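Subject: sequence -> structure tokens, single chain

Hey, anyone have a minute? Need the predicted structure for the following. Not urgent.
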Amino acid sequence: MIIRHKVMRNVSLTAHPVGCKTYVDSQIQYVEKRKDNIEISHFPKNVLVIGGSTGYGLSSRIVSSILGGAKTINVSFEREPSEKKTATPGYYMSKSFEKEAIKRGLYAKSIFG
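Reply:
Had a minute. Here:
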């Protein structure tokens, strides 16, 4: 599929998977650089995030998983890609985060409604 940039008013209607992955990778790198300065003994070991695909929810997953080693589950409303439309940014970001978490031996799953 060729992804063309579509904007309605000030809202982007398309998302690029590579751009979303780059965004998630930059957040993970930011957190990993500060790993030595944070006390992780009080982090929860199991985390359920409602709306954990973007914004504060995704950041919560990254911090609790990467810093605290928590198992994370995300429940959010995201659209998967189809033949004619790209997925939502949250879908791509969730999938990117899950791949990075699995590389580190961490549990991360998403449920899309």
